[in-house]
Amino acid sequence: MAVEIGLLGEVAARVDGRAVDLGPARQRCVLAALAVDVDQVVSADRLVERVWGADPPRRAQATLSSYVSRLRQVLGGTVSLVRRSGGYALVAERTAVDLHRFRDLRSRAMTAAGDDARAHELLAAAAGVWRGEALTGLGSAWAAAERDRLHQERFVVECDLTDVRLRLGQGEQLVAELSLRAAEHPLDERVAGQYLLALYRGRRAADALEHYQRFRVRLVSELGADPGPALRELHRRILNADPALLPAPPRPAPTAAPPAPVLPVVTPRQLPAAPTSFVGRHDELAALDENLDRSSRTVVISAIAGSGGIGKTWLALHWAHRYASRFPDGQLFVDLRGFGPDRQPMDPSVAIRGFLDALGVEPGRVPVAPHAQGALFRSLVADRRLLIVLDNAVDTAQVAPLLPGTDSCLVLVTSRNQLSGLISGHGAEHVALDVLGDDEARRLLATRLGPARTAAEASAVDELVRLCGGLPLALSVIAARARMKPDVPLGALAAELRDLGLRALDDDPAAGITTVLSWSHRALTAEQATAFGLLGLAPGPDIDQHAAANLTGLEPCRALAVLRDLEQASLVARDARGRYRMHDLVRRYAAETARRDLDPADLDAALHRVVDFYLHTAHTGHRALDPAATPVDVAPPAPGCHPLPLADDLAAVAWFDAEHGCLLAVQDTAAALGRWTVVWQLAMVMTSFHVRRGHLHDNLRLWRGALAAADRDPDPATRVLVHRNVGFAHAKVHRHEEAMRHLDRAVALAGATGDGFLLAHTHIALAWAWELHDDVPRALEHSLKALDVLRAGDNRAREAVALNMVGWYYALLDVPDRASEHCRAALALHRAHGDRNGVAATLDSLGYIARSAGRHEQALECYQEALGLFRELDHTYGAAEALEGIGHPLAALGRPDEARAAWVEAAGLFRSQRRDVLAARVESRLARLDHLPQQV
Questions:
Q1: Torsions phi, psi of 82, nearest 5?
Q2: CA–CA distance from 148 to each of 335, 791, 812 (Å)?
Q3: Cα torsion through 175, 178, 182, 187, rounded to 10
Q4: Element (DSSP H or E) covering residue 574
Q5: Predicted pLDDT of residue 78
Q6: With contact defined as beta carbons under 8 Å apart, do 819 and 807 qualify?
Q7: What is the pLDDT of residue 506?
Q8: Element (H or E) spanning 727, and its range?
Q9: For all residues of the chain together, what is the average pLDDT?
Q10: What is the mean pLDDT of residues 180-208?
Q11: Rounded to the nearest 5 degrees, what angle is found at the Cα of 424, between the Cα atoms of 418 and 426?
Q12: How far apart are CA 904 and CA 730, in angstroms?
């Protein structure tokens, strides 16, 4: 079997081309610690230090042995993990480890002196081995130090490759890439010299001289030193226009074949619909066309700046659809929400996560750390022809993390700000957008209303154009109003608008939109006007028919009719998913009308209804996703609130996906209403979805919001629950210190209450957190504390849960007698209390214990009984795990067909539940079943 081990990105392994599950972070760290020194013995003490640090737990050596044993099972084949001379060695071909392939390619490139074409081929191949940040997913101090060292090696190779490309005459193509590298390494003289030379060869000598001066000033300011002799000499030669610095006639450089992608990538088609009545903008479109012509050589970003409602997004989408076919690898689009009422700009990490989803990255394979997600995004789009539209950006800092790292993609950015940092720091082209000229404005109205009608009332059209000041948004609203009143002369509409009085159109064209909207607002029915105002206050970036019905108090069918009326009036827009959103200027105006015209009690009631709609529907979804989760005692919904009945977990996931942005915003709305219980309950009912989808940072965000709510809740049990969950949310994203701080706080609060159940449950959470941190001995310690507290309080039902946890951790630590003793005691208690779910979970533990001891018949019996109970309870999560367990004794007993059937079903369940790491583990066993039936 062919085995590949990846360290230059997420630590991963593939056997015969299929990904295998390497287990928890510390187990993966063991593999990495051996793979960096492939074919060499690493002492056990050094391995322990690399994995656990200078202060390892007492049973670290035993746990290390267990990790090595499990790695042998999943890797098998041509890789051997052997014990030699007090240590371990990974015996494999150097080419099986990507780090050593990278180093071998670099060494071969160094021997190719004088053959730049060959050196280019080898260095490009070496750079292509990297998939992201090295050793992603490992948190030990050794991994951090090794990561820094490896990234320095990568940086040297990138610089070596740049030198070769400069010699091959590719200086002009390198400008954008080196601009980014110079920003990342502002004090590196080698990078500065390469950037100066690329600028000079790109006929930008003035820019090169200016960059040298900036670099020199910064070097003196921060290091107290002048540039070195080589850089000073290069500056002198550029200053004197030395022709010898120009490249020889270019020689075609070979293009290294891109490495096969490690992760599946789909072709995204995210562009919203093109505007139907786009007119004019010939100069701006021509400028964008020029950028397209240059995009084959460098990253070109068009920062389309202008005031709200001036047509920036229309221009970007019109041009993007015109040239979408030039980007065969797809189009990505995101509204960064840089400007809008009562909304925070989108964090770049949220946009990157959305792009990873669109590119087909499975949730279980998305790194936790935002910087690692960014690295994965850049790796996936490298050498792909993608068009990326970043709409409504607030500043350069929001955009920069979303830029690809190679020159194959084209990025369009729209913003009300000029984003000068993007232009100066990243080589972006600037396309400034102004209001439409009179002729273009007339054509827009003619396109919307028909040439016959506008020609018949040319003077009225002139008046409408003048009143709108060339603002496309205002013209669209007016055109929509005129279409809705085909029998009313345009002159009458112009007179009505003129009588309202316009404000500062000459100085600020956007100011006129308020007048135009007020004119359109006057034409709405009372029902439409109320809905319009409430939509301006709705939480989240968009809304669907059901949420709108709860917000407005209308029946769903009536709410949909009103939404369509507002769409006809160009006051809301509907996207391809059937969801409605407002332009931020329209939304701001709508919110103003609501606060001005509606009774405060009615406003309050509407917001309470929509908050309860989201809370109660999410609660239903939470129960569908995790029937065994801690119950949440939500209060009855407000009068007139009608939550959705979600039929099953698939319906729940679909609803959570669609409403995710709104649900995050609902927590802020609930806090503004003073509904502190709802604030923490929202975090509670969204946890199952967040964990299933891998939205772990959003999960942490909601639980952080719940902290403020807990401080206002007089019930100490609430504070315990919130600190416990905040701690566990931190643990999920590997912020161990913060996790322990909150969990320790939860323990202290629970102890002060004298409530044994609260204290025990918090120790259980601590046990889970330590298990996530790969510290099974400490997990056992807290599970034992939970057991002691529950026994003292005579809580026999919960005691059974703690007994099973204790037994499980003893099993993981290879203490089979104690593991069996505690799990059998748990089983007896669960049976006595009629807790079938507890019985099933404990039988699953006993199956693992028997399997580890080689008692395959007994293991099969336990797993089969557990599976039967899980099926009776419709507990598909537990059933999937029991099915995975059943496969092991079946395979060991020489029944491969039955093992295969169990594992196929388990893998299918894991995939449907988005537990992709577990699915990959089972699928790797399926792939090996025919070859090694007795060793899986």
A1: -120, 150
A2: 34, 49, 33
A3: -110
A4: strand 573-574
A5: 59
A6: yes
A7: 33
A8: helix 716-732
A9: 82
A10: 84
A11: 100
A12: 34
Helix (H) or strand (E) holding 818: helix 816-832
Question: Where does residue 605 rank: exposed (0-12), middle (13-18), buried (19+ CB within 10 A)?
Answer: middle
Is residue 91 within a helix (H) or strand (E), and if so which, with residue range? strand 87-91
Give the distance, in angstroms, between the CA of residue 700 and the centroid of all CA atoms in the same chain: 13
Greater confidence, 456 or 570? 456
Q: 3-class DSSP state for residue 906?
A: helix
- By the 8 A CB rule, do 105 and 125 touch? yes
Burial (CB < 10 A; 0-12, 13-18, 19+), residue 525, is exposed
Residue with tokens 């295998």: 20
Q: According to the model, what pLDDT value does residue 602 have?
A: 94
901, burial (CB in 10 Å: exposed 0-12, middle 13-18, buried 19+):
middle
Tell me the pairing of strands 387-393 and 87-91: unpaired
First to last CA, the chain: 15
In angstroms, the CA 263 to CA 270 distance is: 20
3-state secondary structure 303-336: EEECCCCCCHHHHHHHHHHHCHHHCCCCEEEEEC
As a whole number of angstroms, the distance between CA 572 and CA 567 comes to 5
Are the C-beta atoms of residues 279 and 447 closer than 8 Å to each other? yes
391 φ, ψ (degrees, to nearest 5): -95, 140
Is the Cβ–Cβ distance between 86 and 100 less than 8 Å?
no
Q: Show the tokens assigned to 488.
A: 């009313």
Percent of the chain clearing pLDDT 70 (strictly above): 88
In 3-state terms, what secondary structure has residue 274? Answer: coil
Q: Residue 138, Cα to own-chain centre: how many angstroms?
A: 19
Q: Which secondary structure element, helix H or strand E, spans residue 573, and what is its range?
A: strand 573-574
Q: Which residue, 500, 529, 549, is CA-closest to 597? A: 529
CA dist 661 and 666 (Å) reads 9
Closest CA to 356 of 268, 258, 259, 271: 268
Residue 504 is predicted with a pLDDT of 30
pLDDT at 356 over 60: yes
Query: Residue 538 gets which letter from DSSP?
Result: -
| Whole-number Å distance between alpha carbons of 633 and 622 | 13
pLDDT tens, residue by residue, 902-929:
998 888 877 755 566 677 788 878 877 7
CA separation for the pair 12, 202 (Å, rounded): 41
Distance (Å, whole) CA 445 – CA 461: 8
